Amino acid sequence: MLATPSAALVVQTSFLGDVILTTPLLTELARRGPVDVLVTKAAAPLLEGHAAVRDVIVFDKRGSDRGVKGIRRMAKRLGWRADGSPRGIGVAYFAQMSLRSAVVPWLAKVPVRVGWTASKPGRLFYTKRVPYAREAHHAVRCWQLAFPDGASATATMPAPSLYPGLRERAAVDALLKSPDPRPLVALSPGSVWGTKRWPHFPQLAALLAERARLVVVGGPAEASLAAAIAAAVPGGAVVDATGRLSLLASAELIRRARVLVTNDSAPLHMASAVGTPTVAIFGPTVPAFGFGPLAPASVVVEHESMPCRPCHHHGPDVCPLLHFRCMRELSAPLLESRVAALLDR
Ligand code: SF4
Prior knowledge:
Elements: E1 7-11, H1 16-21, H2 23-30, E2 35-39, E3 55-58, H3 67-77, E4 89-94, H4 99-107, E5 112-116, E6 128-130, H5 138-144, H6 166-175, E7 184-188, H7 201-208, E8 213-216, H8 223-232, E9 238-240, H9 247-256, E10 259-263, H10 266-274, E11 278-282, E12 299-302, H11 325-328, H12 332-343
Parallel strand pairs: 1-2, 1-4, 2-3, 4-5, 5-6, 7-8, 7-10, 8-9, 10-11, 11-12
Helix pairs in contact: 2-5, 3-4, 6-9, 7-8, 7-12, 9-10
Bound molecules: iron/sulfur cluster.
C-alpha cells in the first residue's frame, strides 16, 4: 500500500455521476490523511459537507480557469489553502482521463501522481499507473486507484456516499409539507443525452398515481418533462421538484423515496449514494459500461434482445436507426410491475 505522509488530492472534473462514484475512493483515502478534491464548478456543491473531504477546490476549466494561463493559475492555487497555510499534497489521484486536469498537479510539482493505464494522453504525467478494470463498476475502478501497488483484492470498497445537511433536509421538508400516507416514488425523466430519456414516464405516472405519491426530480431543464408527467395524472397530484432543489437536496429527496425510477443519469448514482432502491432504465447504453445502480434491491430494465445495443458510450441525441426501439418498447406496465415489486417487498 502506498504510504501517504501528507495530504491527497483527487482530481475528478467529469460529470456529476462520476463525482458520486469517486466517493468510495475519497472515503478510502480519508482513512490515511486529509483529502482535497479538484472538481468542476457544477459538481462542487455535491461534495459540500462530505465527511471524507477537507477542501473542495473548483477548477473552472471552461470558465475563469480556461487556457494555459488558467491551468498555471490553478497549479499555483493547489499549493495553498484558503487560510494561507500550505496544502501539502503528496499524492494526486486521477479518477478521470482528461489531459488538461492531469497537467495541473504535474505543474504544481505533486511528487506522486496515480492514474489509469488506459488514460492515453494523461498517463504521460503519472508516476504510478493502475490497470483500468473495464469489466468492473466505475466506482470500483475509481476506488482501485487507492491501491497502485495492487492491494485492493483483499480490501472491501466503501459504499458511495453523499452528506445532505440541515439546509437540504429543510428544503425537502418544505417541498413535501402536505402529509401523504402513500409511499414516495421519485421519477427522474431527464438526461443530457436524448436517447437516454425513456419516453413513457407520463404513462408510468398515471399507472402509479393511486398507490404512490409521485415526485419528479431534476434540474430546470426537466421542467417540461415534469409538466407532461403532472398532466398525465388526474388532479395533477405530482410534486414537481425540478429546478427547485440544490444537488444535495435532490439527493436528500431521493433518500426519502421508497423507490427511484430513473434513466442512466446522475440521479441513479445519487440513489446509490443514499441507498434508495432504483429501477434503472437503460436504452442505448448498458450497465456493463460500469454505471449500473448500486443501492440494495435495485433492478435494471433494458431491451436485452436488441442487437444494436449499446450504440454509443453516452447515448446519441437521436436514434441512428430512427426507430428508438431500445426505449420505446420498454412499456409503462413493465416498469410499473418493477416498481410495484419493490413497493411490495
Ligand atoms: S440504435 Fe438501437 S440502441 Fe441506439 S438508440 Fe437506436 S434503438 Fe437504441
